[in-house]
Write a sequence for this structure.
């Protein structure tokens, strides 16, 4: 019996020593000297002049409203002349008579007041009031010429027609579209005038 008791107490002592050694190793591994700290990524908020939430900006030309842009979050830079918009970006574009021509949605946009330009990025969709739709990953709007353009792939649809290409220039209501490179076009039936 005494040999069994000695063996059992020796085993308990060995387990305690192993547990203490494991605890020391665990503490040593978790020390600040041995832990790698990930570098903090810089965000837009770190260097912005100003931040606005649920903002709305008007685009005007000689007193006439040409557009209205809204976004969830806006970061202002360059003495508040450049706005970086994030979240849901929505733009309304108006024609020369002041009537609504088209509605734009995107995930991000940059509006530069000095160059009077808007660049929308990320799942950009532009819908005209009469049923035309344009989808592209990037869309630029030049306020000085009242033109939209892109050098990216795009798809333009309207009832009975579809056009796919790379690069285009157009007015915001997409009536006069100039395509850089046509990939595919599909048209429905064409009605010919009777004599």
């Amino acid at each position: 019996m005494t040999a069994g008791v000695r063996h059992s107490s020796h085993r308990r002592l060995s387990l305690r020593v192993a547990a203490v050694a494991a605890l020391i190793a665990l503490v040593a591994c978790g020390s600040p000297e041995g832990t790698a700290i990930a570098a903090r990524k810089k965000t837009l908020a770190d260097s912005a002049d100003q931040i606005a939430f649920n903002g709305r900006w008007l685009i005007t030309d000689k007193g006439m409203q040409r557009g209205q842009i809204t976004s969830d979050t806006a970061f202002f830079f360059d003495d508040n002349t450049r706005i970086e918009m994030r979240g849901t970006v929505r733009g309304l574009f108006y024609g020369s008579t002041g009537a609504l021509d088209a509605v734009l949605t995107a995930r991000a946009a940059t509006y530069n007041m000095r160059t009077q330009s808007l660049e929308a990025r990320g799942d950009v969709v532009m819908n005209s009031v009469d049923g035309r739709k344009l989808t592209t990953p990037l869309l630029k709007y030049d306020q000085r010429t009242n033109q939209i353009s892109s050098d990216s792939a795009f798809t333009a649809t309207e009832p009975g027609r579809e056009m796919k290409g790379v690069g285009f220039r157009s007015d915001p209501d997409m009536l006069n579209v100039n395509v850089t490179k046509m990939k595919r076009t599909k048209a429905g039936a064409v009605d010919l005038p009777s004599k």
In short: Strands lie at 50-61, 64-77, 82-94, 100-112, 117-128, 133-142, 147-158, 161-170, 177-187.
